[in-house]
Amino acid sequence: MSFWDARFLWQEPMLAALIAGALLGYLGFFVVLRRIAFMSAALSQVSGLGVATAFWVGSFAGLTPHEATPFWAAPTTYAFVFAGIGAIGMSLPTRSRRVTPESVVALAYLAASALVIVVLSSPRIAQEAHEVGDLLFGNAVVVKHEDLLRLAVAAVITLTLHGLFFKEFLFSSFDGDTARVSGVPVRLMDLLLHLSLALCVAMATRAIGALPVFSFLVLPASAALLFSERLKVVLVASFIIAIFCATFGYYLSWTLSLPTGSVMVALAVAVWLCAAAFRAVEKAR
User: Fold this and answer.
1) CB within 8 A of 118, min separation 6: which ones?
2) Can you tell me the distance from the alpha carbon of 141 to that of 237, in angstroms, rounded to the nearest whole number?
């Protein structure tokens, strides 16, 4: 069966990859601008922990990854709750001089990474552990209809929020002190931005996996910055690069029978290397 003949199988996963790529490429602009790449990695891992925990909790109710799950047991619900709590916790200023924001982010990343392994090692989800692992690392090629809908809702919410406060997000990202003096509620803007990031990370993790989510939050925007220094160009380029890597990566993984997430990440890395080479040539002139 050719790729086109099998479109009834890949239409929804491809659409999910497109939406996730577009969202993460856009949000990656702020991630790179604010230099919070490690925070995005921690959120991806915390969101993955939420997905694994959802399957562990669902095992007590006899639920499996292959069937529809109620809202209270949905992996996306747990992913958003975990990521939301993580985003709030990592956004709060630390009261102790001995505890830096970087150490809090590192703690969240390491704790989530360790707990994911612990949860997946539970005998209760031994049969689903491989599938859950595929979901976390982006090797799944099937996306449930309800997960696609939740991802689309997250996209609408995020785009609406950023449409209303884009200037405030941009101003506080560039110069928080000046924005604060100008009357911009910087702390509120930071919280809203991080919560929108947590929402999209949670929904996208369930759709394409934690590893591609982290890569799309960092690599497309980083590559775009190497191509250009104009903000509008960087924003548009990051958006396009992420969509290309997500959709074309899915196509290559399908036709070549390769792990989906790994191919997406490899494409993003290849684009970044091309951008770095382009930057080096430009400087050499």
Assistant:
1) none
2) 26
Largest CA distance in the chain: 65
Residue indicated by tokens 């891992």: 45
pLDDT band (50, 70, 90) for residue 3? confident
Dihedral sign of CA atoms 139, 70, 42, 22 in order? positive
pLDDT digits (tens, 9 = 90+) for 88-116: 888 776 666 677 777 888 888 899 888 88
Q: Where are the domains of the chain?
A: 7-284
Q: How far apart, in whole angstroms, are the C-alpha atoms of residue 64 and residue 148?
A: 18
Asked if residue 87 has pLDDT above 90, the reply is no
DSSP state of 73: G
N-to-C CA span, the chain: 49
Length reported for the chain: 285
Q: Which two tokens stand for residue 252?
A: 């290559």
pLDDT the model gives residue 179: 85
Q: What is the pLDDT of residues 22-38, one digit of tens each?
A: 999 999 999 988 888 88
7-284 fold: ABC transporter involved in vitamin B12 uptake, BtuC (1.10.3470)
Residue 149: CB partners within 8 Å, gap ≥ 6? none
Residue 140 has pLDDT above 80, yes or no: no
Please state, in angstroms and rounded to a whole number, the distance separating the CA atoms of residues 21 and 215.
10
- Cα–Cα distance, 17 to 242 (Å, whole number): 10
The H or E element containing residue 229 is none
Query: What b/e readout covers 69-100, taking b as 16+ CB neighbours within 10 angstroms?
Result: beeebbbbbbbbbbbbebbeebbeeeeeeeee
